[in-house]
Structures are given as structure tokens and as C-alpha cells.
Amino acid sequence: MKDLEQEKLKQEIFKQAQSFYQKNYWGILSGEDIKIYQAGSLFSGQIIKIYLRLSSDDLVSPLVMPSPPTPLPLVGEGRGSGVVVAIKAQIYGGPYLMSAAGYFCEFVLNKNLKEILEKFSMEIFFHDLKLPENKKSILLLLEDLIREFNF
Questions:
Q1: On the CB side of 144, how many CA atoms lie within 13 Å of its CA?
Q2: By the 8 A CB rule, do 97 and 46 touch?
Q3: Into how many domains does the chain fold?
Q4: What is the C-alpha separation between 126 and 141, in angstroms, rounded?
Q5: Rounded to 5 degrees, what angle do the CA atoms 23, 123, 17 make?
Q6: Distance of alpha carbon 59 from alpha carbon 67, whole angstroms
Q7: What is the pLDDT of residue 46?
Q8: Which domain holds residue 87?
Q9: How many whole angstroms separate alpha carbon 44 and alpha carbon 117?
Q10: Of 16-20, 61-65, 82-86, where does mean pLDDT reach its minimum?
Q11: Is 27 inside any structural domain?
Q12: How many other CB atoms are there within 10 angstroms of residue 116's CB atom?
């Protein structure tokens, strides 16, 4: 019975990995404005490399002011840190890592650093991804990536 449950869970993870694979999160972003972060190693058998493009505050025209005027947020509250507007990932690892990387890309997209730091929870990722206990180390890679974020 336990083998049947494990096989069913494995099939679900493969389907999840396939669905993330089809969402165009994979590859490289290039340009001067791209930030690159990496976690893991070949020795551990798992690497995740993330490419981010951030929105630019310079694109906001001073002529387009909301009415009534609202105070601009302080640095650390979204201004100056940018919002992730594009993300790509490269991985070296198995389907659990692919699934986690795809979920991470969806999580980070359209958020600023403050939102990412406030909302990231290993417990929620672990629950949502339905990772087996022996694959929990994958979440540590994601946590390492977030610690490296400096935008």
C-alpha cells in the first residue's frame, strides 16, 4: 500500500514538473539590467541559477501623478528595489528541483524584494510542492537564493 502511495506521489510530482516546464521559465535572460543568482553545486548534484529583470523606477513619468497625490514609498518599501518583471531559471537536478524552481519563479514574479522576503515560507513551499521529506534540502537552495537577493 505504501509503495502505491509513493508511486502516486511520484507521478504527481512529474506532472507538476512538466506543467512548470511548459510555462517558459527556463533559459537565460540577457542584458545589462539582468541580475543573476545561483545556489547549489555539482558536488551536491543540484544547481539552480536564476536570471531576473527588474522594473525600473526611471520609467515612471513625473507627469503621470495619481490624483490625489500619494506619498512615494521609502527605499525598502518597493521604491528603488524594483519589481521582478521577468525571470528565467536553469537547473541541474531532477524533477523535484524542476518543480521547486518553477514554483519559485511563479512566486517571485511581479513581487519586490520586501514582498518576497515577507511571503517566502519553506513550510508553505514544502506543503504546496508535496515534496517527500528526503527532498526538503531543495528548499534550502531556494532559501539560499533569496538570501543572495540584493535589489
A1: 16
A2: yes
A3: 1
A4: 13
A5: 25
A6: 19
A7: 94
A8: 19-59+77-148
A9: 26
A10: 61-65
A11: yes
A12: 18
Average pLDDT, the chain: 79
**CATH code of 92's domain:** 3.90.1010.10
131/44 Cα distance (integer angstroms): 18
Res 109 pLDDT > 60 = yes
What is the C-alpha separation between 145 and 140, in angstroms, rounded? 9
Alpha helix locations (H) across the chain? 2-21, 95-108, 113-119, 122-129, 137-148
The answer to whether the predicted template modeling score (pTM) of the entire model surpasses 0.90 is no
The answer to whether 97 and 131 are in contact (CB under 8 A) is no
Q: Are 40 and 89 in contact (CB under 8 A)?
A: no
The per-residue pLDDT for 76 is: 40
Flag whether 81 is in a domain.
yes
Q: Is position 86 within any domain?
A: yes
| 133, amino acid identity | E
**Range scoring the smallest mean pLDDT among 15-24, 75-84, 142-151:** 75-84
Would you state the pLDDT for residue 22?
A: 65
Backbone angles phi, psi at 87, to 5 degrees: -150, 140
Note whether residue 9 is domain-resident: no
